[in-house]
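In this section we walk through a basic example: taking a raw amino acid sequence and producing a predicted 3D structure, encoded as discrete structure tokens. The instruction is simple. Fold the sequence below.
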Amino acid sequence: MILSRIRVRYFYLFALVFSLLAFALSCTRLPNVQGKGEALLQGVWNQDSIAN
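The resulting token sequence is shown next.
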């Protein structure tokens, strides 16, 4: 009975560690791939002045 509880705990611990490891290894940083963009699509930012 006690041996089966220990096995269940180790199984859950192994599953947790495996899940965290798989999650950590699946994340990769990508380089900055976004360029300047087309001037036609960017538009011009005109900020309105608000009187204080």
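Looking at the output, two observations stand out. The chain has a mean pLDDT of 81. The chain is about 55% helix and 0% strand. In the next section we compare this with other chains.
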